[in-house]
Structures are given as C-alpha cells and as structure tokens.
Amino acid sequence: MNHALRPVPKPKKFTPPVLANVDPLPTGPVAIGLFTGLSVEVCDPAAMAHLSLDGGFGQGTSSRSFPKVIARTGRNVGRVRRNPSGVFHRRQVERRREWAGKFGSVEGSGGTVWVMEEDEEKLVEVGAVSVEELKRNALKVEEDPFLIRENLSLSLEEAMFLVRELNVLKVQSFDGSVLTEKNLVEKFAAIKRDFIPSYAAFLYLKSRNWIIRSGLKFGGDFLLYQKGPQFFHASYIVLIQTYQSGKILTTCGRNLENYDFQCFNRIAETTAKDLLILEVHYPEGLDPADPHECLRRLNEFRVGEVFPKHHNYVATRTG
C-alpha cells in the first residue's frame, strides 16, 4: 500500500499553526512514561509535545486528539503565558478550593480560569448576554486552585514502538522502577490478548509512514492518517485478522464473518473512509501463547493487505 496509489484524503478545513511544525518520528531526549495498567501516560509537557507532534503518538487523557495545552501552544508549552483554560462557575472554583485543602494543590502550575458569578450566570441563562461577551468584558481571571492536569496517553503498541524500536521512551511502574522490554511484553500481552499481532500490524503500517491512531470509535483496530490528524481526515479503518498455518486464530484476534463486512463497509463509506484488513500470519511452529518468543521472532511474521470494499456478503453466504 503506497500513498501515491491511493486517493488523496480529505484535508482539514484549518490546521492550527502551532500544530503544523511536525517531524516524521521523535528523536532526542528520552521521555518518561507511567504504566497505568491500561496504557502508558506521559506527564511532562515538553515530552508530550515532542511525542504528539513528531510522529503523532498518543492522545490527551481528556481530549479527542492532542492534549489541550499542546493544541493551544504547540512546542512552546511551558515557555509562553497560557490563556485561561475555561469558564468556571463560582461554585466550581469553591469546590476546587476544598479539593486543594484536602488533597493539596499543584505548586507552580500557573493555571488560570475565567470565573462566572451567580448574577452573570443568570444573564447567560435568559439569553441577555453570551459567554463570549462576558469573557471579553466582565469575567474575572483567577488562578485555578486545583489544576487537573491532562497527560498524553500512549496505546500499548505506541509505547512498545517508542521503547523497542526508537529508544525514546522509558516506562516506569507506580513504584518508580523502570520496566524492561521483557516486563512490558508480559504486561501488555496479559491485558490485550491480541497484542502481538496488533504490534506486528503496527510495525507494518509504520514502515509505510502512516500516522496510526486508535480505531475504537469506528469499531476498528486502527485509523490511518497521512501526515497527521491535524492535516487530514483518516484514510482507512483497519481491522486485524490473525492466521497460523492458513487457519484463523480466534484465540488472539477477531474472526470476521460475512455480515461483518457489510457493517464495517457501511461505517467506512458513511464516514468517507476505506476499509483495510491486515492479515497477520504467525510463523510455523510458534506458540502464540509465548509473548517473549513471539516478540523475538517478530521479523518472521508476514502481513498481507485486503481491501474488501466491493465484498458481496450475500454471494459468499454459507448458511
């Protein structure tokens, strides 16, 4: 699959200038990530900007794509004065002060918010004034008493790629100990049964310069972007099917039935995307239940592409 052989993807209407300066892959300082049991989170703002802009890795823990601080400031995170992050009602600010007294506040956070008093809130409710007008003319700007930080959440495949292939990430557990590659593959395979074929597919797609994001919201395994989600809409919804000795392995992957094709094709067509199925083939004699040996022999895996856009599910129905 080559970018030049596929239709040009639909560009975004606007790309924020702070997100336009990108590189294909991250290089430089090694970032620190925390394994949460479900994903790996990067907390340092500079590292978040580095990984999210160079290669399009991760997404914000409370955002649809880039962490909000990166979307506002790009690589200048931590070096420019931030605008207030949002509009809070007075009661919300007071509640956060209670949290700060109970749990402690973040020192040197510098976070600020617009504060809406009760009388201003009533004016908005009756339509006498808009929130944007209040922000320009009336709302006070106060320090956020209990700043809730947003981190960069990396998928398991992204974390392994950054650790194993690029050596730009170290993953720690909650006790501060650094997890080795052996520790990581054990933990990742334990919480995601198809981690090995999924990682093999991830490497295959990365070797073809795709920006890879989670396909969960469309029911798939991955979404593929050219250059990045700030530039184009996704080109493909990717589904992974696992084989060994010519037979589908349902123990570590999905088994696509004929009617599944109809469902996924409809989702892809209504969202202006194409459907791509990656067939990941285990080497002969390799035990899929042994993640260490699978990772060691990863270069022996074979990956094939299937484009089922015109699949006739009725003609191939068997029952």
UniProtKB/TrEMBL annotation:
InterPro entries: tRNA_endonuc-like_dom_sf, tRNA_intron_Endo_cat-like_sf, tRNA_intron_Endonuc_cat-like, tRNA_splic, tRNA_splic_SEN2
Signal peptide (from-to): none
Record's GO cellular component terms: tRNA-intron endonuclease complex
Active-site residues, Swiss-Prot/TrEMBL: Y225, H233, K273
tRNA intron endonuclease catalytic domain segment(s): 195-241
Top EC class, one word: lyase
Keywords tagged on the record: Lyase, tRNA processing
GO molecular function: tRNA-intron lyase activity
GO BP annotations, alphabetical order: tRNA processing
SUPFAM superfamilies from the UniProt entry: tRNA-intron endonuclease catalytic domain-like
The keyword Iron appears for this protein: no
Pfam families (UniProt xref): tRNA_int_endo (PF01974)
Assigned EC number: 4.6.1.16
Family of the protein in this entry: Belongs to the tRNA-intron endonuclease family.
Family annotation (PANTHER family): TRNA-SPLICING ENDONUCLEASE SUBUNIT SEN2
Function text: Constitutes one of the two catalytic subunit of the tRNA-splicing endonuclease complex, a complex responsible for identification and cleavage of the splice sites in pre-tRNA. It cleaves pre-tRNA at the 5'- and 3'-splice sites to release the intron. The products are an intron and two tRNA half-molecules bearing 2',3'-cyclic phosphate and 5'-OH termini. There are no conserved sequences at the splice sites, but the intron is invariably located at the same site in the gene, placing the splice sites an invariant distance from the constant structural features of the tRNA body.
Protein name, UniProt field: tRNA-splicing endonuclease subunit Sen2
